[in-house]
């Protein structure tokens, strides 16, 4: 790291101030470049010193598998060592570095960052993406770039079309490795890795990388070094999460209140995650009616419209972006301030990916989650995954991280009245509401089910009695809600046998005695079911009572409370020697999806996301289609092998990867791609000079009629030379005829 040029350090600290603790000795130069104070510089490096494990190992040339939280500087962690290793262009044909990205947006961001870091070098980087013109990518490969940033499908297409030799590759990166495998790129990655040289360096970076390396050893990673950054901290400590309990129909009203009163939409950037594209379109119309500017993206949106909307959001022309999970994958907003989960994610891993977009690079951020009653079990799954307890709001609690509270009904009523008036005046808004509700029914059926234990535990909790969240702090409203809660939870102290003329009978006395016996059991049963904060502590002037362990030191015999058998702890587990049948990190591994193998993940496709439109929701594996030849319904994958071809390494890939597009492009442009391969040079050195056998007739391409400037000048010069030669020949012929005529005249006169 010490040998890095100043431009690397400048761009590194400017765009991703993580993983670079080794440049601490260059503090005066960095301070001068960035015009920052020494206090700010030291604050930055307090963060850097926690994150300096990745780059030194990669710089040593080892194969690295790194797990790091989203926003911790993974991109710079593999780009800086790559640029240090390549240094500059060399007189050799072929790329030397290859970076795989799961999505187009992430690949374009990586290219932008690469060019910023390599601004003072002569290294050339190119982009190979699906959906672009393949002819332009043929031309880009012909320019022999040093770095190729690609998506796996299109890159393999180019390799097979052009018959590329990848023997010059020195450095291979898998960015967002878990997403590459979950999105079904196993065949493409396996085929590309089989073509790469064995002496390459492989680096895998991901936000949720499994502990077991079997899946990656299959892909050819030898002797990897595992680096786990932020294993215990899935979410940034700078992030403040708020969980708001409300009904499903009230979520729109709560969202409007947050955008109007809690979040400063003019200065802060906010991303709102919704379930389907129909919710995105409906919410866009609602916010526009409320005079709140916003932009939106979803998976089926046109690519040009996506780019325009993302550019408007990045330029802060609008402060709110409505997205779905599928569309938001790969979009990087470095200065994001807030995230709102309109629909709570069904997987803890998905929640980590959502909120990981804020509180990055040492900045603070907030995450608001609107939780309906049917989404409460997912909240418990999330806290089990994070290893935290749910903190329910209480009276007097401050606005802190992880508080779960309700929304005052007065706030909901005010916004709901405005929404009702808008829907009455606008028929389009009413139709969009109906469509979004129908879409939610499909989303509800396709959403993964929460764990049965979380569902059982949440059913026991009375969420309606939870206090208002501290962000809605209002003393008058708090007293009103408390009174309503007391009325709702009122339990009479008398029974029907103790009222009226029966009050003085013998049955009344019997009921009193029965109530005395049963009241303790009833209270003991009711107490655990009441939600209360586990993080708050009751303060009092009394001394803390001694526990049982403290009392044991006074006597060998401890007199315990004489409790009934049904109130005693009947736990059979020995506190010292009991071994649980599940690991201590069971819920964390389950949330990350680490208990399943890759084959199961590939079979289930993407478990984290549900489709945001009808077509994606209906793509199920049991869907059959009519076969006209067999005259019956068959599975879609019955003829899977017939649509694929087997490569030299034994991997089955789609037949569409091998077409004649490259040959047609070569014939059209009359160009050739010369690959510098050692094996080809050895073969050409010992090739026989003479060719035996019949010579095949060459089929030349049609003559190209269009000419450039140089070709026109060359043709003119050739024509002028030809005309000059012809003129000389004609002059010689004329002179020769004249001489012959003069000689004949002289002979006649002489005779």
TrEMBL record:
Disordered: annotated span: 623-648, 668-735
Signal peptide location: none
Keyword RNA-binding assigned: yes
Helicase C-terminal domain residues: 257-401
One of the record's GO molecular function terms: hydrolase activity
Keyword Nucleotide-binding belongs to the record: yes
Top-level lineage group: Eukaryota
InterPro entries associated with the record: DBP10_C, DEAD/DEAH_box_helicase_dom, DEAD_box_RNA_helicase, Helicase_ATP-bd, Helicase_C-like, P-loop_NTPase, RNA-helicase_DEAD-box_CS
Any one Gene Ontology cellular component term annotated for this protein: nucleolus
Bias type Basic residues, positions: 623-633, 724-735
Record key words, sorted: ATP-binding, Helicase, Hydrolase, Nucleotide-binding, RNA-binding
Extent of Basic and acidic residues compositional bias: 638-647, 693-723
Entry-linked PROSITE patterns: DEAD_ATP_HELICASE, HELICASE_ATP_BIND_1, HELICASE_CTER
Annotated EC: 3.6.4.13
Residues in Helicase ATP-binding domain copies: 55-227
PANTHER family on file: ATP-DEPENDENT RNA HELICASE RHLE-RELATED, RNA HELICASE
Similarity annotation: Belongs to the DEAD box helicase family. DDX54/DBP10 subfamily.
UniProt protein name: RNA helicase
Species assigned in the record: Caerostris extrusa (Bark spider)
